[in-house]
Specification:
The chain is 69% helix and 0% strand. It is built from nine helices and no strands. Helix 2 packs across helix 3. The relative contact order is 0.09. About 3% of the residues have low confidence.
């Protein structure tokens, strides 16, 4: 029998399991990563603004081919065959010509500008939000054009008729081109923009951001806002034109409340 004992077998303890590596999305951003992400967003915003601006310039150059016909058409609500816009400066006619071309170009470029805005905000939206906003993009252009048509065929004849016939035995309505075109284009553009308000509130309510109760409770703020907007759109001191613009704005606000109520019910959310 061997006098030397064999050494006991060495028992190896298993190594502790290595914890799974944390995902990169769960880790807090370092200051360098935060700054780089912010700069990337600024670069994306810059590129979208440049593309929107280039599209606007292209449509404006195209509209210059028809600016004369547009100017002639803008004087039709006055209803006078001998009506002719006056210029008080050597460059005023050129400025008005390009202003009309820019407005027409902006109307034509609305789908392109809206698409660039959509491409910028889309990466930060959920699939549900993307679906709602993407489906509403064509409607924004349609509502804007409806607002322009309503302003041209309904508001414009009433407003210009009142201004032209106001104390006509004392004042002769020979308007300057700058003031007349500024008044007409401002009314057309901002009424067109305001017609998109119900759709905007409908989308916000569908996403659960704004509810009909908040819109109803803040009706006083809406009235004040409509008065301020009317004073901005029609920079006149007469109450007739301000009421002429405030009326449609308040009707659109009421329509926004109704649409937001429908959106809340479709989303299954209680007020």
């Amino acid at each position: 029998m061997d006098s030397q004992l064999e050494p006991a077998a060495k028992v190896e303890t298993p190594a502790p399991p290595i914890p799974p590596a944390e995902e990169a999305s769960d880790l807090p951003l370092t200051p360098e990563e935060y700054v780089m992400g912010f700069l990337d967003h600024l670069a994306e915003l810059r590129d979208r603004i440049i593309k929107a601006f280039l599209g606007l310039m292209a449509t404006t150059l195209f509209s210059m081919l028809f600016a004369r016909q547009i100017l002639e058409y803008l004087t039709t609500p006055v209803g006078r065959d001998d009506f002719q816009l006056q210029t008080l400066g050597p460059t005023e006619g050129v400025v008005i010509y390009f202003r009309v071309a820019l407005l027409a170009g902006a109307i034509i470029a609305i789908p392109w500008i809206t698409w660039q805005l959509w491409m910028f905000i889309a990466p930060g939206l959920t699939n549900k939000e993307k679906r709602y906003i993407l489906l509403s993009l064509p409607a924004t252009t349609v509502l804007f054009l409806l607002g322009v048509m309503f302003s041209w065929f309904v508001l414009m004849p009433a407003a210009l008729g009142f201004l032209q016939n106001f104390q006509s035995d004392i004042f002769k309505a020979d308007w300057t081109a700058a003031q007349y075109v500024a008044f007409v284009t401002s009314l057309l553009f901002w009424i067109g923009v305001s017609f998109e308000m119900p759709l905007i509130f409908f989308i916000l309510a569908r996403l659960g951001i704004v509810g009909p109760r908040a819109l109803r409770q803040n009706w006083r703020v809406a009235v004040v806002g409509a008065a301020v907007a009317a004073a901005f759109i029609t920079p006149t001191v007469d109450p007739f034109n301000m009421a002429l613009v405030m009326g449609p704005l308040l009707v659109l606000y009421v329509l926004s409340i109704l649409l937001s109520t429908i959106a809340y019910r479709k989303s299954g959310m209680a007020e």
